[in-house]
Structures are given as structure tokens and as C-alpha cells.
Amino acid sequence: MLFQSFDPSCLLTRSLSSSEPNLLLTKISTKIISFIHLIDSSMLAAQIGYQLSTDAMILCDLEAEGWESSVSLESMRELSVKGQEATRSVVDGFRDIKQQIYKVHIDSKVLS
User: Fold this and answer.
1) Residue ranges of the domains in the chain?
2) Which long-range contacts (CB under 8 A, 24 or more apart) does 17-26 make?
3) pTM as predicted
4) 57-90 burial by CB neighbour count: b if 16+ within 10 A, else e?
5) Which residues are CB-neighbours of 76 under 8 A, at least 6 positions away?
6) Could you tell me the sign of the dihedral formed by the alpha carbons of 65, 71, 72, 76, in that order?
């Protein structure tokens, strides 16, 4: 794996005092954790894209006839479907989290 996952639970180690607006902080930390998971998922989608492009280069390399490779059109098709699903999920997730963060921002102005 090219990238390592980030553990967002380290963001929640600080205990909250009773004087802090717990509800708002909970909403914010939930959105931050969701955002970090989406970044992690986008790295996975990038890895799939990188693997797909590498497989395409191997498959199209006419001088590489002696290579032993498990690359085939079928394996590339399966990888591209997996990549498209991952990418679509990431795009939808980033759009949703952007709207949720904006809503938290609006809600925080109401509480002020």
C-alpha cells in the first residue's frame, strides 16, 4: 500500500469541560473524522487509478512479450469498476461533508 491510513481517534483524546458547548464540538469533531475518512478513501481511489494505469502500460507494451504478468483486459475491467465505485463514493462524500460543514457553520452562528 502506498499510503498509510490516519487514525482520527487521536483527535478526540482531549476531554471536554462542562463549560464548553459540547453539542457543537461533537458535531465539529464528527465532521472532521468523516472528512479524514474521505481523504483516506480518496487515497485508495488514487491507488486504484495508479494500478490501473500501470497495468495498462504493461498490457500495451509491445516490447514486453517475455514478461510474466497476470494483467488481462478482464482484470483491468474489474479494477476499473472498483475504481469507479470508490471514486464516485469519494466525490459524493466530499459533496455531502461540505454541505454538512456549512450547516454546522450556520448553526454555530445561531448559537452565538
Assistant:
1) 22-63+70-111
2) 21/111, 24/104, 24/107, 24/108, 24/111
3) 0.68
4) eeeeeeeeeeeeeebeeeebeebeeebeebbeeb
5) 52, 55, 56, 59
6) negative
> Do the Cβ atoms of 31 and 101 come closer than 8 Å?
yes
For the stretch 1-52, pLDDT in tens is 444 455 555 445 444 445 456 888 888 899 999 999 999 999 999 999 999 9
- DSSP characters over 35-81: HHHHHHHHHHHHHHHHHHHHHHHHHH-TT-TT------HHHHHHHHH
Alpha carbon distance 66, 97 (integer Å)? 48
